[in-house]
Amino acid sequence: MDSAKNNQERAEGKTEEWSGWAKDKIGGLIGNEQMQAEGKGEQLKGEAKQEHAKFKERVIGTTEQIGGTIKKDVGKLIGNEQMEAEGKATELKGQAREHVNK
């Protein structure tokens, strides 16, 4: 999984959400129900795209957290302080990624 692709997907989703919002409002102003419905649909599609990207980032975060915990524990077990510290750093990075993408 690639964070850059996920960020791009989030940006595209946000753009689609705002575009749909505008289309919905313009449709309402001019009394075009079909335009409103299309706008609401685009808005929901954009929100779903953003949530999908956030979900993928949470999966990456969980993977980092688990991998970091294992590395930290192995480092502690064998008395390798550097390995333990690197594992803790990766574990914290994963936790942060999960938190940011809730």
Tell me the number of strands: 0
Query: How would you spell out the order of helices and strands?
Result: HHH
Quaternary class? single chain
Which structural class is indicated by helix and strand composition?
A: mainly alpha
**Count of helical segments?**
3
Mean pLDDT: 95
Biggest β-sheet description: none
Alpha carbon gyration radius: 21 Å
Give the overall form: rod-shaped
Uncertain parts: none
First CA to last CA: what distance? 18 Å
Write the layout of secondary structure elements.
Layout: H1 3-30, H2 33-78, H3 81-100
Helix pairs in contact: 1-2, 2-3
Structure description:
Helices cover 92% and strands 0% of the residues. It contains 3 helices and no strands. The model has no long low-confidence stretch (mean pLDDT 95).
